[in-house]
């Protein structure tokens, strides 16, 4: 009986530090109760649209009263904001921001930021950038490598 208790104690002493190590690697700032800030940007990558700006309006999905506003973006302009995630927000909300885009006769609503989807893909710099082009919406975390995520339709 005493050997079983000693074995359980040894296993506990090994398992708990391993679990804590894995948590700190996965999301160290959350574990240490620091806030995490993500930078979200939407860039107008439409060419030759000087007479037709890209109109964007974004809001926090969790809070209907948390409207972050809108802009009419000319070619190359961007609309950027920071998303601050606390431990409480990490546990209790979706941490999502939705944007509605309008260009000419096209209209599209999409999730510009969703923590569960973007926490790892925004990279170590926590940079989430969208480039809006004629054929769709492209995502990048370094503004060099773009992947089309959505079409206008």
UniProtKB/TrEMBL annotation:
Keywords: Membrane, Secreted, Self-incompatibility, Signal, Transmembrane, Transmembrane helix. Its main location: secreted. It is found in: Secreted. InterPro entries: Self-incomp_S1 (IPR010264). GO terms for biological process: rejection of self pollen. The chain crosses the membrane at residues 7-26. GO terms for cellular component: extracellular region. Belongs to the plant self-incompatibility (S1) protein family. PANTHER family: LEGUMINOSIN GROUP486 SECRETED PEPTIDE (PTHR35630:SF1). This is Plant self-incompatibility S1. It comes from Artemisia annua (Sweet wormwood).
């Amino acid at each position: 009986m005493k050997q079983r208790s000693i074995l359980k104690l040894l296993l506990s002493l090994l398992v708990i530090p391993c679990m804590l190590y894995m948590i700190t690697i996965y999301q160290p700032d959350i574990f240490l109760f620091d806030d995490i800030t993500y930078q979200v940007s939407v860039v107008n990558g439409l060419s030759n649209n000087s007479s037709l700006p890209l109109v964007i309006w974004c809001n926090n999905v969790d809070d209907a009263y948390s409207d972050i506003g809108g802009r009419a973006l000319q070619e190359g302009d961007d609309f950027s904001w920071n998303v601050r995630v606390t431990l409480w927000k990490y546990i209790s909300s979706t941490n999502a921001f939705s944007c509605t885009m309008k260009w000419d006769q096209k209209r599209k609503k999409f999730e510009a930021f969703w923590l569960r989807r973007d926490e790892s893909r925004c990279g170590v710099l926590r940079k989430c950038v969208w480039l809006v082009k004629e054929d769709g919406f492209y995502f990048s975390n370094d503004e060099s490598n773009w992947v089309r995520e959505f079409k206008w339709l």
